Structures are given as C-alpha cells and as structure tokens.
Sequence to fold (479 residues):
Amino acid sequence: MTTQTTRAPAGPPSAPADSARLGARGWLTLFTLCGATFITGLDYSIIMVALPEIGRDLGFGSAGSLQWVATACVLPTAALLPLFGRVSDLVGRRRLFVAGVLAFTALSLAAGLANAPGLLIAARAGQGVAAAMIGATAIALMTTIFPEGPRRTRALGINGALLSLGFVIGTIGGGVVTSGLNWRWTMLILVAMGAAVLVGAVTLLPGDAGRSAARLDVPGAVLASGGLFALVYAISTGADAGWTSPATLGSLVGAVVLLGGFLAVEARHPDPLVPLGLLNRPTVKWSALIGLVTFGMCGGTTMLLSLYMQDVLGYSPLATGFGFLAEGATALAAGTLAARIINVWGTRRVLVVGLLVQGVGTAAMALLPAGGNIALLLVTSGAMGFGHVLSVVSFITTLTSGVADEEQGVAGSLAQMPQFVGAIGVAALAAITTARADALADATSRTLAVLGGLHTAMLTAGLITLAATALTALLPRRA
Fold:
C-alpha cells in the first residue's frame, strides 16, 4: 500500500474562478452530508440544557448518574470511529452512512420516548454508535464526491461552520424547547431532521463501488476501540471520580496499554485497521495534532465561557445560549469564506492565521470583568469561533490531501477523532480553573475566586493555541 503523498503547489492554484461552484445537485448532496454531521453535533449540546428536567422527569438518583445521559453518547462515538472508518472502506461508505443515519433517527425516537433512566442511557449509547458510523463516512464521502481543490475545500468549510453552529443552536434551542415544551422534544426534533437527511442520502449519494477484498483487522479494532474507550472514559469521569482515583488511573493505564498494543499489531497485520504508513505521514500526524489542540482549547474555553456567564454574571441557561451567538455567527462566516481564503493564501498559511486568531481571542478573555462587558465578550468569543473554524477546515484539508480513495474512510475517521479526544482540553482547563479558584478562595469572594480561575484557564488555552502555530512548520510546504 503506497504511502507517498501527491504533491501540488501550496500557493494560489491556477484553477478558474468558478472551480469552486458545486451546482444544484452538489449543494443538495453537501447539505445532506453536512446535515448528518450537524445533527450529531446538535445532539450533544441540545441535551445538555435539558439535563435538569430529564433528571426530575425520569427520577435519576444523582447528578453523576444523570451525566451519563451525555457521556453514554460520546464514549462509543470516540471509541468506534477508527473501526467504522475502516469498515466504510471495506463495505461501502454510502451503505454505512445510510445505516448510521437510519439508526441515529430510530434511536433518537427511542430516546424521546424513554420512560426510565436505563432506557434513555441505552438509547443514547446507541446514538453514539450511530454517530460514529456517520462521522467516519461523512468526511470520506465529501472528500471522494468533491475532488481535491476549491470544491472540496468549500465543502469542508461549510461542514466546519455547521459543526460549530450546531453547538450554539443546540444550546439556544435546548433552552427554548425545554422551556416551551419539554425535554422529549429535544430528541424528537432530531428524528425529523434525521428523516430529512435519510431521504437525501438515499436519493442523492452515488452508489458504492465493489467491495474491497481486504480483511477486517479484528485484533486492531478491539485494541483501538478499547483503548479509545478507556481514554475518553477517564477524561469524562475523572473530574467527578477524582484524577487519582483507582478507576481513573486504571482507565488511563489501560488506555496506554491497549493503544500501545494496537500500534504493535498494526505494524504486523497485512490489512491494518489504520495503516501506519498513512498515520506516519507528516500531513496526517501533525495536522491531527493541531486539530486536537484547536478542538480541545476551543471546546474547553466554550465551557469556561458558559461558567463565566452563569456563575459570575448570573445569566440563565437560555441567556447563556444567546451569549454564544457571536461565536456561532463568526464560525458560519469563517466556514463560508474558508475556501476563498485558502485559494488565495494556501492551506498552511490559513492554518497559521486561524490558530493565531483563535489564540489571541481566547487569551484576551482573561480581561473579562466580574461586572460584565458584553462588547468584549462578543468580540473575544467571535474571534475564537472565526479562528477555530479556519483552523478546522485547514487541518482537515491538509489531512485528507493526497490520500487514495480507498483510504479516505480511515482518513475521515482520523479527521473526526480530535473533536472527541479533544475532551482532554476540556478536562485540563476545568482542572486549572478549579485549582486556581481554590488557591484564591481564602483571599477573596467566591465569585472573584471563580473568575480568577477562569482567567488563568482562558489565558492558558490561548497560549497553547498560539504555541500550536509552531507545529505548522512541520507540515510540508507542498501538501
């Protein structure tokens, strides 16, 4: 299996000005694929706002058990992405995508009708499995349907914008729906959207070619899925269980052992789950690491902003959702403009600019005052959202460039992985906030102590993002 990267100039291409036009069918196809990734992103944020009502309605015994409504969806998604990425290359991406959308829609209905905690958590876990099927195939379908160049970059830009916009709309929509109706409608809305995506998938997506003769790497699949599950589990539950608790430490050690075993197995398997030649490409490994930074720091800072608006400024959950409008609007703008900017400056330069804008916007949040400054809040969060989407589009474009069609499923799953493993950033920034707030607790009020912790974590997130610009020097000038 070849590991050579197709090389093309990184500067402005010589394609005609209309080379980024998608056509009517292209737009409908793109909306179908983006719609699928949009509802999987919406699913996580829309349910978070509804958690208190879910706990009261279904009788969850504790906040820890209620948190599994969210965690049960994230864990299987992160754990199964590599497996489904490879399965899509073997059995067909359209088949797996349609199956994933169908399963996600049906399980959203089951979640909306659940009348007991166990049933809801089981349905949410099933949604996570289906989301892994969608995530692994959606990017791969985009990168094969839209050829490398302006059209692919435009498609990835719109997809990146909708991913970020899904969080904002979910936060606002969850508050509106829960306040006006009840929590079950947060799931039933996903049913209607899933049905629309399913119609588009069946009618618009091209059929799959013949099945690959390669065998599925079962040992690699077990080791990768188990290792990622253990890693994300430790990150997701470490704050509540304690970072030095036996469960957390055991999960982290298990993750290291399983993922190390996975790499050893992949080096010897004739048809590896993730070819090491692909994983070792500079365009893949370094852009994936940059993706982990931009997702981890943006996701973690968004969580910090939510704490700032609610715990410091006293906003309601609904008002907090509207406080993220600038981030959502600039994310949409960045996704719309990304293809044009990359066409002029080249992918690597845009990646540097995106990280710089995100980093500066994030670090400037350390200036947010206890009394509130809505202009500063909107400007800094808007800068973070704009830079983040530019970074996301650029790193995915880099990661999937020059990859053979038969490996696009694996590449697509690797491109999606930072979004979920980026929970490391959320956990790290939460730990920094708590540690600094505890250190200030004896010298000032609780509100100012929390604000001090948030400022420290926000500044840290900004500096880490700015430092990640150095990683772009490791990417080939021609990718």
About this structure: The CA atoms of residues 296 and 327 lie 16 Å apart. The chain has three domains: 23-206, 217-272, 280-479. The domain at 23-206 is CATH 1.20.1250.20 (Growth Hormone; Chain: A;). Confidence is low (pLDDT under 50) at residues 1-18.
